[in-house]
TrEMBL record:
<dbReference type="InterPro" id="IPR005814">
    <property type="entry name" value="Aminotrans_3"/>
</dbReference>
<dbReference type="InterPro" id="IPR015424">
    <property type="entry name" value="PyrdxlP-dep_Trfase"/>
</dbReference>
<keyword id="KW-0663">Pyridoxal phosphate</keyword>
<dbReference type="InterPro" id="IPR049704">
    <property type="entry name" value="Aminotrans_3_PPA_site"/>
</dbReference>
<dbReference type="GO" id="GO:0008483">
    <property type="term" value="F:transaminase activity"/>
</dbReference>
<dbReference type="InterPro" id="IPR015421">
    <property type="entry name" value="PyrdxlP-dep_Trfase_major"/>
</dbReference>
<protein>
    <submittedName>
        <fullName>Putrescine aminotransferase</fullName>
    </submittedName>
</protein>
<comment type="similarity">
    <text>Belongs to the class-III pyridoxal-phosphate-dependent aminotransferase family.</text>
</comment>
<dbReference type="Pfam" id="PF00202">
    <property type="entry name" value="Aminotran_3"/>
</dbReference>
<dbReference type="GO" id="GO:0030170">
    <property type="term" value="F:pyridoxal phosphate binding"/>
</dbReference>
<keyword id="KW-0032">Aminotransferase</keyword>
<dbReference type="GO" id="GO:0005829">
    <property type="term" value="C:cytosol"/>
</dbReference>
<dbReference type="InterPro" id="IPR015422">
    <property type="entry name" value="PyrdxlP-dep_Trfase_small"/>
</dbReference>
<keyword id="KW-0808">Transferase</keyword>
Length: 459
């Protein structure tokens, strides 16, 4: 069925009927969408026959790489056996039981309980409801406010978009909802002034303490953050930040929540981002790498303290038709097992991750308008800057990033611009040779980019 139409026909029908997420519809339709028809390993193929290196693993999710033959087999078998049943009516099924058991094995110690959703946004919304319910059950009904961060990303639902700190999302639809406040992000390059990164990490954590005191500790339910801010531009906090955040949350009796939707399932070389930064949250949210995008599924992990309290509260009035969907659960199970048993996560930690980080810094550190070259495991970024010596960013943050991103696209390499941060998160199965190839193309694109900056009089 797929190959019955021409690219033009697909584009016309797409423009006529399909609204794309986070897209300026009219400008896309003038141009026409790129039609992706198949994928294998780290490569995508479009309807024009182009082979494109996916330096973003889709939307940071195809951890295991494209084109696995075993996962569709698992899906087929599960569909034939039990395509669907819910887990509301005092029922369960083997697929969800096996997945939960495996997740308790790969999760950091103390996380033995999971609640299923269909996406990262649903995981975040579920977490918001759990956090508020937790304090209800504890008899502290005023503890309702969640603290998020400016430039954090927690999804597109009303709860997730509110908790996130993307002002361009807040502006569309009267967000945030009540009971959600924000503090500044721990981005040393912009906010660190003359502090060392370590000093700045403590100063940034202090912003959270200040906010708790401003709102009143008796009203604050939780602090929520991504271990590394992903969509905000791969902001890697200083090493001092997360342990200090944990200390502050403990001091004021506030739940600590990590949004591991991007960092989870091996992206950083550890199973979860919290293990890189040495902190232990009470709850963490996941999706993406849980199934490597082969099925839509998310999961919220709870420590014993939270799980026990929610259970003491009796009914938790929350859940989705597809919570723990059998096909999604079976595929997620096979995916997580393969990430572990095939040594894919270990390889990111010990081999390809360190290699990428070394090469990434060597290749991009040499450009005149690139600075803050950073990353861990297979998540990395750099920032396009006007003047390295003074840490001066370009005006109209994001304009230059798009220019740069478009040059990568033209050269069949997908890296993403988040403002003027250029970010990358390829499938975890990328080999060292493929890393070399990716960086060689990227370096050529950067030469072209810096040439264009000069030609356009932007520097
Ligand atoms: N949290 C984080 C940290 C994310 O990066 C994302 C998606 N990029 C989400 C939540 C939302 O996930 P989804 O798009 O699956 O709803």
């Amino acid at each position: 069925m797929q190959n019955q139409r021409t690219t033009t026909e697909w584009r016309e029908l797409d423009a006529a009927h399909h609204l794309h997420p986070f897209t300026d519809t009219n400008s896309l339709n003038e141009q026409g969408a790129r039609v992706i028809t198949k994928a294998d390993g780290i490569y995508l193929y479009d309807s024009e026959g182009n082979k494109i290196l996916d330096g973003m693993a889709g939307l940071w999710c195809v951890n295991i790489g494209y084109g696995r033959k075993d996962l569709p087999e698992v899906a087929k078998r599960q569909m034939e056996q039990l395509a669907y049943y819910n887990t509301f009516f005092k029922t369960t099924h083997p697929a969800v039981v096996e997945l939960s058991h495996l997740l308790a094995e790969v999760a950091p110690q103390g996380f033995k309980h999971v609640f299923y959703t269909n996406s990262g946004s649903e995981s975040v919304d579920t977490m918001i409801r759990m956090v508020r319910r937790y304090w209800d059950v504890k008899g502290k009904k005023d503890k309702k406010t969640l603290i998020g961060r400016w430039n954090g990303y927690h999804g597109s639902t009303i709860g997730g978009a509110s908790l996130g700190g993307m002002t361009y999302m807040h502006e569309q639809g009267d967000l945030p909802i009540p009971g959600i406040v924000h503090v500044e992000q721990p981005w040393w390059y912009k906010h660190g002034k003359d502090m060392t990164p370590e000093e700045f990490g403590l100063a940034a954590a202090k912003w959270v303490e200040d906010k708790i005191l401003e709102v009143g500790a008796d009203k604050v339910a939780a602090f929520v953050g991504e271990p590394i801010q992903g969509a905000g531009g791969v902001i890697v906090p200083p090493s001092t930040y997360w342990p200090e955040i944990q200390r502050i949350c403990q001091k004021y009796d506030i739940l600590l929540v990590a949004d591991e939707v991007i960092c989870g399932f091996g992206r950083t070389g550890e199973w979860f981002g919290q293990q890189v930064f040495g902190f232990t949250p009470d709850i963490f949210t996941t999706a993406k790498g849980l199934s490597s995008g082969y099925q839509p599924i998310g999961a919220v992990f709870l420590n014993d303290k939270v799980a026990t309290t929610l259970a003491e509260g009796g009914d938790f009035n929350h859940g989705f038709t597809y919570s723990g969907h059998p096909v999604a659960a079976a595929v997620a199970h096979a995916n997580v097992k393969a990430l572990r048993d095939e040594g894919i996560v270990d390889r990111v930690k010990n081999d390809t991750g360190p290699y990428m980080q070394k090469r990434w810094r060597e290749v991009f550190g040499q450009f005149e308008h690139v600075d803050d070259v950073r990353g861990v495991g297979l998540i990395q970024a750099f920032t396009l800057v006007k003047n390295k010596a003074t840490r001066e960013l370009f005006p109209n943050f994001g304009e230059i990033g798009t220019l740069c991103r478009d040059i990568f696209f033209k050269n069949n390499l997908i890296m993403r611009a988040c403002g003027d941060h250029i970010v990358s998160a390829p499938p975890l199965v990328i080999s060292k040779e493929e890393i070399d190839q990716m960086l060689e193309t990227a370096a050529k694109c950067m030469v072209e980019f810096e040439k264009q900056l000069k030609e356009r009089g932007l520097v």
